[in-house]
Design brief:
This protein has about 180 residues and is α/β, with parallel strands linked by helices. It has one domain: NAD(P)-binding Rossmann-like Domain (Rossmann fold, 3-Layer(aba) Sandwich). About 45% of the residues lie in helices and about 20% in strands. It is built from five helices and six strands; from the N terminus they run E-H-E-H-E-H-E-H-E-H-E. Helix 3 runs parallel beside helix 4. The longest helix is centred in the middle third of the chain and has 29 residues. The protein starts with a strand and ends with a strand.
Length: about 180
């Protein structure tokens, strides 16, 4: 299978990339700053099994996502079977201390990022008649916890977005879902 994972430079994304590559899948590990701060991570992932292919992917930009997906489609040997929307950022603190700009950035990456990826991959998945998208959320998405309120809100929003995509795309043979991960 060909699998794209966003946010694969660390944490869950990196671990999923390694695990799926070890199982024999071709994994396209999306990350920012591929030639910059993540160059060492990219090299280490490539060395794991020869099944991980780092790609430059910044989910915070429409043009960046569209360009990355277009380049990925040219590199694929076969269809894109699975997309795992894992990229995300956490900003903790009292709600009143988090600036609007920081909250907007969290919304941009945690909610709009997966939407951008979906908009870019869905035409290909529709054409091939199948595909699976998994959005990684958080186990605190439904909890009101001090110091995590805005983060929880972004992950709850992503769950609802994924649920509506699932309803809209099921008739086309496409599966969209979300999985909660323990983030803190």
């Amino acid at each position: 299978m060909n699998i794209l994972i966003t946010g694969a430079s660390s944490g869950f994304g990196k671990e999923m990339a390694i695990r799926l590559a070890d199982e024999g899948h071709s994994v396209f590990a999306g990350m920012r700053a591929l030639k910059g701060r993540n160059a060492d991570v990219a090299a280490s992932l490539e060395a794991v099994s020869g099944q991980i292919f780092p790609i430059e992917l910044d989910v915070s930009s429409d043009a960046g996502v569209d360009s990355a997906i277009a380049n990925l489609m040219l590199k694929l040997d076969g269809p894109l079977d699975v997309v795992i929307n894992n990229a995300g950022i956490y900003v903790g603190g009292l709600n009143e201390t988090i600036s609007s700009a920081r909250f907007q950035n969290m919304l941009n990456v945690n909610v709009l990022g997966p939407v951008r990826v979906l908009r870019s991959v869905l035409p290909n998945m529709r054409d091939q008649g199948f595909g699976t998208v998994i959005c990684i959320t958080s186990d605190i998405s439904r909890l009101a916890l001090p110091m995590s309120g805005f983060y929880s809100a972004t992950k709850a929003a992503l769950e609802l977005v994924a649920e509506t995509y699932a309803l809209e795309l099921a008739p086309l043979g496409l599966a969209i879902s979300y999985r909660s991960a323990r983030c803190i």
